[in-house]
Amino acid sequence: MRTLLLTACAAAFVNLAHGQPAVQPPKTWTTCAACHTAQGAAAIGPPLAGVVGRKAGSSPGFGYSRAMKDAQITWDDKSLAAFLSDPQQAVPGNRMPFAGVPDPGEVAELVRYLKTLR
User: What three-state secondary structure class fits 49?
Assistant: First the structure.
């Protein structure tokens, strides 16, 4: 319990330090966070701050697949939901080794959270 509280406080501090409201990520975020950061530099995957409104395959400093670079997608609620549900169907040939989030409610929570990352 103490670790959970410290994690929540650290997340709130990081968000406030970046001028963002302290929004708790949904439980499904832990799956995303294995490869993506909410802020900062690219990890295994690109950082997701500012993903809403950004063209697919365009975050500086990350080596995207040709499929993602060529995708004619600007990330919005609908395109993010489709990608999070089934990445290979949404962008065939992308390199993200993830089958997708099967629960539409969890997808909606993730999209709401991603919209808070600036």
Answer: coil
85-96: per-residue pLDDT in tens? Answer: 999 999 999 999
Q: Which of 82, 60, 56, 54 is nearest to 68 (CA)?
A: 56
Q: List, for residues 10-21, the tens digit of each pLDDT value.
A: 444 444 445 555
Residue in the block written with tokens 């995957």:
45
22 and 32 in contact (C-beta within 8 Å)? Answer: no
d(CA 32, CA 71): 21
Amino acid letter at 68? M
Q: ∠ CA(17), CA(58), CA(114), 5° rounding?
A: 45
What residues of the chain score a pLDDT lower than 70? 1-22
User: What is the Cα–Cα distance from 22 to 71, expressed in whole angstroms?
Assistant: 32
Distance CA 22, CA 45 (A): 23
Q: Of 104, 105, 103, 114, whose CA–CA distance to 77 is shortest?
A: 114
CA-based torsion, 102, 118, 35, 6: positive or negative: negative
